[in-house]
Hints:
disordered N terminus, 5-stranded mixed sheet, 7% helix, mainly beta, 2 domains, 4-stranded antiparallel sheet
Amino acid sequence: MKRIYYLTIIIGCILNLRAEVVNFSLQKQGSTQTVTTEWVQHAHDAQRTGYTTEVVNTPWKFSWLRSDVDVRSGYMVTPVTGDGKVYIAAADNNLYALNINTGQNVWSVAPGGSLYSTPVYDPETKSVYICASNPNKLYRLNSSNGATINSFTASGALETSPLIVGNRIYITAYGGILYALNKITLSQDWMYQATSTWPLTYVTMPSYSATRDIVIFCTDQDLFTHAVRASDGTLLWKSKPTANDYRVYTENNAQQAIEVRHSWPVVADNEGIVFVRTRHGYSAMIWHPGVPGGPNGGWPETNAEIRQIFINYPRERCVFALDLDDGKEAFIPLITNGAYGDGSLTQGSMPCIRTLPNGKQVAYAQYHNRQYCAAIGASWCDQVEDATIGEFVLDNNTVSGCQAGDGRFVNWPTSQGLQGDEIGPITGSGDMIFFAHWDWPLEGVIITDRSDSVGLQATNPIKTQATPWVVTENNSGCSCSPGGSSHYCSNGTCAENGGRSGPPGFFVGDSGWHIYPYVIVSSSHVIVKSISATIFVMENGNPY
């Protein structure tokens, strides 16, 4: 008995030591971040990486859908999970909590005001937090029944998603304000007010660096990125990486402006950088006549050519990699501007950050490169269709022959390529990468070989195999149509406009245009928000 007793003590000490090591690796200056694989806040985690280590192995089977939980169009509102539920903020200003196994309402509640953002679930307190405008309140709700526990009133409009880190919740308000609140009492610990010679209007949601213990957000109209110490709310650094100004100009007889609204900082803690992104007008969407391309005036075909274009034409850049320590530019990400039917301004995907087994990190985003047109043998291919998904290295020693910012081709199983003006959000799960297109709210691949010998040529891309895809609405030429109980198309999926075809998968069976579909993987489910705001859910199993 004594041996068992002492063995138990030893094992307990080892487990506690492991926990201490995990916490130490995610803390600095006394701030500890709770680690969870569950998708509890916007873009999964406090760093907004858009990536989870949780995997739902294929094959998948249809679980349930809800087509009546309608979110606001034009805002990045995504599902999150926790306590056996899926939470989503709807345009009717109700926050819905759906049973993750059945899709049935556990509760729905209108806390007060207009809901424009993704909620947050806290596993420690089993609370759900949601921001609302008019009135400008952050609500803390009981995850069991939706009852309001308490609230906090901000001085500006709240249209961005909260951020939860340890015992704090952070929110940003119009006018360049960042609040740090106690997550239980919602009392204010501190407030940071950005100052600028420009009028401050919109803000991005905040993100967090665990290695530096800083909270990061961006402001319009000055286009600055702010890094604020989580310990006391003092400014560590601020940086304006873009060569552009927020200025109104005319494009296609419409007023345009460059802004950061609807984006969010993406932190790659292991590499010591944060990505920020600006939204541009359609003229800067991809290579255009005002920007010469390769050595013969064509579109660029190498990383070196893309980098040189960005050096020569800095105003064409839209994605910036900033050093977490001082806000200075770390390198040039070779990610060009993209669009997603998002009004007069355009914004492609935010980088999705994957941590490799060796601790190195890479980013996934759209990759424009003329090689891709030749690789798919498309004579019609132009500077809009020359896009695919790319893996971008974040230092000079992750992939032999690549320097920080370089892109590598990822094999995408479609013969038509990806449209540069249809670049939706990208998320990841283990070896799986998901791209949310308006026709296919889930296009997915499983990476099977990303060794140094692949990826630099479009004809020799990073090797993949397709996951099941999810199509919004098949056209009349497809072999299956909406209405089947399995929702499965074994012979492939095809777009409702007939322009593209995809691997076998599932159909949602509706249509609409609320933009920004999204894919999350959490609690053994693959959860898709479609273009029509339908929530479509799958799990492991036989699709029939």
